[in-house]
Records
---
Amino acid sequence: MLIVKKFGGSSVANRERIFNVANRCIEDFRAGHDIVVVLSAMGDSTDDLIALAKDINPSAPRREMDMLLATGEQVSVSLMAMAMASLGVPAVSLNALQVPMITNSRYSNAQLKSIGSERIMAELENRKIVIVTGFQGVNKAGDVTTLGRGGSDTTAVALAAALHADVCEIFTDVNGVYTCDPRVVPEASKLGEITYDEMLELASLGAKVLHNRSVELAKKYGVQLVVRNSMNREEGTVVKEDDGMMEKMLVSGIAIDKDADRISIIGVKDQPGVAFSIFNALAKKNINVDMILQSIGRDGTKDISFTIDDGELGNALEVMETLKKTLGADKIDYEEKVAKVSVVGAGMATHAGVAAKIFEALYNTGINIRMISTSEIRVSVLIDETDADRAARAIHEAFELEGLNR
Amino acid sequence: MLIVKKFGGSSVANRERIFNVANRCIEDFRAGHDIVVVLSAMGDSTDDLIALAKDINPSAPRREMDMLLATGEQVSVSLMAMAMASLGVPAVSLNALQVPMITNSRYSNAQLKSIGSERIMAELENRKIVIVTGFQGVNKAGDVTTLGRGGSDTTAVALAAALHADVCEIFTDVNGVYTCDPRVVPEASKLGEITYDEMLELASLGAKVLHNRSVELAKKYGVQLVVRNSMNREEGTVVKEDDGMMEKMLVSGIAIDKDADRISIIGVKDQPGVAFSIFNALAKKNINVDMILQSIGRDGTKDISFTIDDGELGNALEVMETLKKTLGADKIDYEEKVAKVSVVGAGMATHAGVAAKIFEALYNTGINIRMISTSEIRVSVLIDETDADRAARAIHEAFELEGLNR
């Protein structure tokens, strides 16, 4: 088998952990597999580099930031190759220019365009473990780029696709994907399998195990992902295409997002183009809107509510104050102490009554629902932040997710 | 003018010094010159990386060491570009792969083969300051190499040659090249000019201002060097070809090398092939021999003495003990507390009596000479280490080098 293994910064933060990773890789290598390892920068080293740069130039050119940050992964891959060599296994480290991992030129947030597999395949044929820098790329001019958030996961999945790897293992500090955050719901079960779509909904809803960008890429190229714990031998969670054989779960997971804020514009004229004006103005300021709720028009006016990430509140309120006048609204109202609880399951698409069961569980727990939003495989509710954990536990219990063994 | 400026690690060790370098470069840039800057890694960062590697694998593969160490310069060039940007000057950092600086594959001690000037010239035409990583290269396979000791000086000179630069300024922490180490001879004068050959003799004899490898390269390609202080505006020392216009100094400098050890093999048979046996055996162990002295044969036997760097003493004695038997020598003798004092001057080649004047100065100071070695423009004497500084001062005075203004 050809296995791509990705380890994050905390997994290579010091000598001991580097050797832990080296040993895990070598085990599979000695079992006869071809191993490609993708690494992030060691521990906090990326933050240290950012601090160094900010001290020199708080608005440093992005091209130069990427040139700087890319050194972090180059340090970890070369040290890993040294660790493997000391264990008697030939290994070779490669940076993004050497692979090459070609991206566009959007520095600090570049997108992968193509990957050269020749060099890696040649090294694998020579029975070497190949260790590749995550998070970084190179544009056509040969300049270093970085992939932005979730970058190393994306590197691993893209490499797995380009190399036609049998599996891409994403190592993290948890045992896999859970039905809910175990810190909130101690009874949460680890899932054995989950579909790309379910994982996508969970990833974008605050379950921080995998970045949704890498899941999208895995889905697009059919790369089988396994989320595993780097510190133990648990089997982890397999993320793959719904192959029809997989029993569709009514609910596979519950995600809690406490970073949501709600904004409402009250008493705008009930006429065409109002929603467009609002969301176009927000989009122009790069403010991402999540849930949207529009009241039924009454007395010729209506209310529009939406949620945003709390980091955007100031900007969004500024936009809304300007719109208030042009739209002739009564007032702008907002609330910071709200949370979004989302319930995800591929089975929802074909089973009625899932939403009703959620609402029932919340009603029985005395939790008031502010807003509701749904997709084919997801139901999200906006509730008081103080109710969020209780809501997750109630839903978890209602769907009997405890002790699940899927 | 196209000016290549090289700054060492201590010149970019912190924020303040980085801005000092940035400002110096920008001054010349604003005066209309094209500026290419070559930087070493910040302060002790290379030592820190080496320590990191040794902790993982004391005999790390050289390829991986080079991959690791090359990150040091990439950090300093990107930070420098950020500093210049914050001062309103467009700058672009380039690593060895991006230039490219092509070397052979002798990791940790690679030799430059060719340099691509296209990218740099294009950036200069766009009126950018170009900042290049010193010390590193890339082989044909795209793997990172490093140039070994004096690497950044070599990078600067090679770039100056490839770009047909008008001058290559090597910034250091002294004002230029002195007639002797000012810590030993406080009256030492700074030289205004010196020939490549004089500089080569001084460089290889322990005057640590410039590495002889970079001087050799400068001589080969006729690159005019200027050694300057990064912390002040002194004019520095120009190193260039003897153009016939330059007044030839009888003595341009005195170098002291306290790292020398002497080994003697006593009472070997006076027959052909003895010297060959000895120095061939040492060469095979990569031991560099410096001065060699062979006594006139007497009673059918002779003595051979030579000096080596003190780091090689153990290895050299091992070789000699083996040879002692095969050559039938009486004994092996060695001395660690010796020093080599060398007097360099292009004028020596055409002036008689320089060596005599040196010996006279030493005799007057009561210093005993153990060995003598000469070249066209150099006289070296091996003396007791405790006499070294006194010897340098005596010779300095004898040739009236004080207050020199050349």
---
Amino acid sequence: MRVIASQVQAQMANASWIRKMFEKGAELKKQFGAENVCDFSLGNPDIPPPPRTREVLMSLADSAAQPLGLGYCPNAGLPAFREALAVFLSAQQHAPVKAAQVVVTCGAAGALTSFFRAVLEPGDEVLCPAPYFVEYGAYCGHFGGVLKPVPALPPDFQPDLASMEAAVTDKTRVIIINSPNNPTGCIYSQATLSRLGALVDRVNVGRGRALFLVSDEPYRFLAYDGAVVPPILPLSPFTLVLGSFSKSLSLAGERVGYIAANPQMPEVDLLMNAVTMTNRTLGFVNAPVLGQRLAMALLNEGVDLSVYDRRRRSMAKVLAEAGIRFAMPQGAFYFFPEAPGGDDQAFVRALLAQNVLAVPGSGFGYPGYFRLSFSVDEAVIARSAAGFKAAVGLLQH
Amino acid sequence: MRVIASQVQAQMANASWIRKMFEKGAELKKQFGAENVCDFSLGNPDIPPPPRTREVLMSLADSAAQPLGLGYCPNAGLPAFREALAVFLSAQQHAPVKAAQVVVTCGAAGALTSFFRAVLEPGDEVLCPAPYFVEYGAYCGHFGGVLKPVPALPPDFQPDLASMEAAVTDKTRVIIINSPNNPTGCIYSQATLSRLGALVDRVNVGRGRALFLVSDEPYRFLAYDGAVVPPILPLSPFTLVLGSFSKSLSLAGERVGYIAANPQMPEVDLLMNAVTMTNRTLGFVNAPVLGQRLAMALLNEGVDLSVYDRRRRSMAKVLAEAGIRFAMPQGAFYFFPEAPGGDDQAFVRALLAQNVLAVPGSGFGYPGYFRLSFSVDEAVIARSAAGFKAAVGLLQH
């Protein structure tokens, strides 16, 4: 007897690589002890939230216990938080964003599904550079959208603008980018982004339906060596920015994010009203109020980034000493090195045999490479050195 | 230039009546002062959360400030909370529910969309008794499902089983019920439910795809005069129960709910794994962790129900004195009286002229009646008496 939908059944059969590694990791940890496994498979921010988190939550406890203290809030978010986000995003994006152009969402994931629901007709295409966060496919697939990845250019993984332009059809509704990038750690350059904005404007001339450029930016706060993540809204009137506080405030479990539209976009109010409605009718209703109040209070604070930078340098040393080739990540907390031997799944299996967990590039639509999250304690990175060397050695003999 | 999807545009044009009344109410409150408007249009629980809420939040502040304190949690919910819910639901539902059969969701709304995504093929039909919570249509419509309401029987609004059986086709995938009911306040009787369970079992004999009976139960805790809300899981192996803590703990803004499946259901593990996946890929990822911890700590507590009962009696008195006919609600916090004159929209307009806000039955797929939420202060109910009388008088002259 069939209990689940065919498309969902197919998605389950293709359970994501990240998930598979998670299960494999759980087995290894059970067998060998967690302290003997080096797990680089998960992007779960493990450094403490900002010090004021405790104090803010204590103060929220008083108001939460009042009538309506934790009651419904407007679907688009607490008005004061939307105002604060508008100020925050105006500065970050070099564009005069107003509260009406910001919708508070259940994380970046909720922002994406609410947006896709609001704009996609069945059969619409969504372009993204590969490698890419594999859930993008499911996010647009719920509403009949089709993800079309376009391989980025190694070794530094800037998007391939010529191939992206060639991939645009009448059905292309959205181009989605993610910078600093998961899984490559690449920050898209101002030159690349300017060309992308020009492409979007060119396509939109005379078009009946808008082509949107959407930037998914949960790692904007995390750029190394003084690198600048260029703002998105100045690139084109058809731009939107979304993000979350999962990584910047280490509160991934609270599910608080946002989506903001370019104030110059045609019909911007209609679009944001639609996103507010789909945010409600998809069942989010509103982002959780405690999380909203917490993120609002901590909006201009952040976790200690130097911790991530030290880990990045340690990881780079371990990889270099093992003879593994990689581009140094400019942002986020991932390395995306070449798989020694060229077969990413084989190399990840070789790492597994050393109790080292990584995710093959195949899981991000980009075989031949593998992803390491360095959102782990430095001791784990140091401990992994022998494992990487042994795995490389195994593949060379 | 078209910026939003055609189906979404249509939904926006049909903005819900509740939303329209909300906007109308905001205008009136601005014009006359909030204290001069009697707003019965919203189901926002306004009585304080349980007294321990403050203390629980204070204690959560300590753990939240630790590394990973607010990090990702498993997509199906905190394991300890699922275990606690399994015990809680086993007692409530008279069935041995295990943690594996419970998924924690972002409220009841998130439970419904995750479930519909997991089971619906495009073109599938969802039956529900009318009047009904109008968002059900959008919840299943996102995934190609079609809501087919079947009018319930006045004056007490038990579902019309004969008409429901006649409405079942090969494409019927789900029957959804809501008891205690929004908007009628009706509690479905054991006799009605037993017949419904038998109908579901009959349809499922020899069927290739399961027909599910889903009970949406956010108001289970709120039954008056010692009324019993019969358990759902004993009715058929094809049953699921979902609910939230929005009303029982007055934390509607936190978005914490659950869905639980009958342990006897064929392929129950596959179904709950699918719901766990759609909960992730729809962008919920996990219900907010602070809300989960709060609901877990308060699972066996509740708001003061006597407040709602007193309001119910006051409201009944006001309506009776105005000569308005109604069935006394057995549960939830709504009245669904007959519209004097028979035209619900006309009567709601007449109430509006008295600064009294209600929602026409048309907004719930059931014209000729109107909904009053008595989740308001008793003073508001008392103050509304003259308005109801005047509105009735207007329509009679």
